Structures are given as structure tokens and as C-alpha cells.
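Practice problem 4.
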């Protein structure tokens, strides 16, 4: 057993010298591996007599433990060092400022839809979505607009080609089909808004073939027209960020609501400048009404038990009024100078707590 001290010294020196985990593993194999120096000594125990084996065995076990312990602590130290190095290498400086050359802008339509969503979300509305490509049932029939109804002509619908069964898909002419999809899929009470793209075959100073609407739908047992008006009044004052905006209902007609009302908001045009708020003028911002019993029935909702209101507003219109954008068609011209002027910085996310616009 005269080798013991030498082997101990060699093994511990190799462990201490190991600069990384691979070198440490090599040192472990050299001492404790199957063919390692300590294992080789262990193998000699068998040839000793009982007494000698006892003392030598105990000594060898101590040596083995000592070396194993040295390896374990060296390993922990090397692992900690490796982690430190990795953390240093992958460090991100979160204090770096946003790149100053950011030139992208959020389109006013996207911004206004975000603002509207933030307001209605605060009131407890959820956002619902439907496809841009619709079928007759959701866009018309279920909304109490049967085939041959004159309202279908009024919608200037873009139709797709005829399918084998004679039906034709279409580009939705309003966001109201999302009412139908929601009522078919959810049991009341319902409180949703549906912002999205809509299409009509119409193009002039005040119409573009693609435009945006935001739909609202509330269905509950006792929902009435007062709720509708209160909801819209709350919405417009928050949206236009003024203390008072008069709201006026004008009798109107939509096949899917009864009674129906056009929604106007107050404005003044003093000195040629349009201002939303109390004044002599009125501006139409959308349509609304109490959901027609036939529509509820088409969606499997009992009109004797449930009723509710719906409204639809044009997003471009609201953006033009709020941000003083004079020409509808400029929304879709993708003129970078226009976008730079009317667009919003990507980090200006509208919230009610932080302010809709800054
Ligand atoms: N869908 C109607 C339109 O596009 C607007 C509307 C929605 C009217 C909901 C009443 C209720 O003109």
C-alpha cells in the first residue's frame, strides 16, 4: 500500500488542475474509472489475507471517498463558472433605447379600431370575429333579409361564382353576420363587438369598395333601448375625449332591427372648424336598433325570453371625425407621407388608463 499517498496526491492534483468539465471527467476516469488507479488498487484486495484486506480496504474506501468528494466540489465550481460565463455572454441590455430611426406608423384605421375595442372592452364587451367571405344565410337570410328582399340590392354585394348547388358566396356587406354567428354559437347573455372589413361594390368620393365597421350586440332578458342609447353615449364621449357629446336617435329602417334608429352626434362648425360636442349641427355615425324577433328566432333564441340591441358604425367615418382626415380615399392610397402625418407611433398603444391618444 505504499502507492496510496502517491496515488492520492496524483488524483487530487489532477482534479485541482482540471480547467473544465471535460478535464475533470478525465481525472475522474483516471482515478475512479474501471481501469483507474484507485480501482486497480481495489482489485489487489482479493489477493490479501483477511486481516490485511480489512485495513487496506478501509483505507482505500477513505481514499475513494476523498477523491470523489474533491471531484464533486470541483464539478460544482466549474458548473457555476460555466453558468456565469453563459449569463455574461447572453446578457441583454434592457436599458437600450428604442432604435431612434423607427419610421413605421400604425394606420389610423388600426389605431381607431384599437381605441374602440379598448372602450367597449372596459364596458364588458368581448371581441368576436367572422369571415370576410360569407354565405347568403349569415349575411342576409338570418338577418331577416329573405331572397328578393329589396335590401339585398341596396347592399351592392360582391358575389363569387355559382357553386354546384346553385348558391354563391359573397364578400360580407356589413359586420352584422357576426351577430348571427355569435348567437348561433353562444347562449345568452351576449355582449360582443365585432370590428372588421366589409365590402360593397361602390366607389366614389365617399365610398370605397372595402371599408371597416364595428358591430355591437347585446342580448339579455331585460335589455332595452335605453341601454343602447346609454352605451353609445358613454362610447362617444370616451372616444372623442370630450366632456359632452349629444346623441340623437333618428327613426330608421333595418330589416334586422325593430325599432331601428340612425345614430347622430352633436357638432359645431363655427369658423369653418368641425368640433364634436354641443352645437347646432348633427353628424350620422351609424345604425342601431333592437334585434328583430325573427333574427333571434333564426338563431334559436326565444324572443319571448330574450331581447337585445345591436349597432353598427363606420370606422373610417369615426377616424375622419376624430383626427380631422378630410378625404376617405386617402386611407387606402398607401401614401407614405400621408401615413407619416396621420399615422401613430407603434408604441402608443391606446388604453383607457394610459389615454387613448397622446
Ligand atoms: N348593418 C347595418 C349597415 O351596415 C348597420 C346596423 C348594424 C344597423 C346593427 C342596425 C344594427 O348599414
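Answer key:
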Amino acid at each position: 500500500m505504499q502507492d496510496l499517498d502517491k496515488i492520492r496526491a496524483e488524483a487530487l492534483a489532477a482534479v485541482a488542475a482540471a480547467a473544465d468539465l471535460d478535464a475533470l471527467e478525465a481525472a475522474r476516469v483516471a482515478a475512479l474509472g474501471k481501469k483507474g488507479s484507485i480501482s486497480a488498487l481495489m482489485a489487489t484486495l482479493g489477493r490479501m489475507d483477511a486481516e490485511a484486506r480489512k485495513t487496506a480496504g478501509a483505507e482505500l474506501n477513505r481514499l475513494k471517498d476523498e477523491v470523489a468528494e474533491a471531484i464533486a466540489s470541483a464539478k460544482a465550481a466549474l458548473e457555476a463558472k460555466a453558468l456565469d460565463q453563459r449569463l455574461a455572454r447572453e446578457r441583454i441590455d434592457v436599458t437600450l433605447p428604442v432604435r431612434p430611426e423607427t419610421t413605421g406608423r400604425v394606420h389610423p384605421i388600426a389605431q381607431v379600431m384599437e381605441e374602440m375595442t379598448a372602450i367597449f372592452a372596459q364596458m364588458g364587451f368581448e371581441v368576436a370575429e367572422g369571415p370576410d367571405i360569407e354565405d347568403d344565410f349569415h349575411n342576409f337570410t338570418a338577418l331577416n333579409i329573405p331572397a328578393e328582399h329589396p335590401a339585398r340590392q341596396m347592399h351592392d354585394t360582391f358575389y363569387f361564382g355559382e357553386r354546384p348547388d346553385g348558391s354563391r358566396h359573397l364578400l360580407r356587406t356589413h359586420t352584422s353576420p357576426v351577430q348571427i354567428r355569435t348567437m348561433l354559437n353562444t347562449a345568452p347573455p351576449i355582449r360582443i363587438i365585432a370590428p372588421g372589413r366589409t365590402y360593397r361594390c361602390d366607389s366614389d368620393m365617399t365610398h370605397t369598395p372595402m371599408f371597416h365597421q364595428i358591430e355591437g350586440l347585446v342580448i339579455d332578458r331585460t335589455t332595452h333601448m335605453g341601454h343602447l342609447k346609454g352605451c353609445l353615449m358613454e362610447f362617444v364621449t370616451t372616444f372623442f375625449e370630450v366632456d359632452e357629446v349629444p346623441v340623437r336617435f333618428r327613426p330608421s329602417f333595418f330589416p334586422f332591427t325593430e325599432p331601428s334608429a340612425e345614430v347622430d352626434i352633436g357638432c359645431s362648425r363655427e369658423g369653418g372648424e368641425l368640433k364634436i360636442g354641443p352645437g347646432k349641427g348633427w353628424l350620422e355615425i351609424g345604425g342601431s336598433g333592437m334585434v328583430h324577433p325573427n333574427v333571434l328566432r333564426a338563431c334559436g333564441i326565444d324572443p319571448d325570453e330574450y331581447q337585445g340591441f345591436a349597432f353598427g358604425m363606420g370606422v373610417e367615418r369615426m377616424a375622419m371625425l376624430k383626427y380631422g382626415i378630410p378625404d376617405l380615399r386617402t386611407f387606402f392610397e398607401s401614401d407614405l407621407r400621408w401615413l407619416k402625418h396621420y399615422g401613430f407611433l407603434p408604441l402608443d398603444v391606446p388604453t383607457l388608463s394610459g389615454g387613448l391618444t397622446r
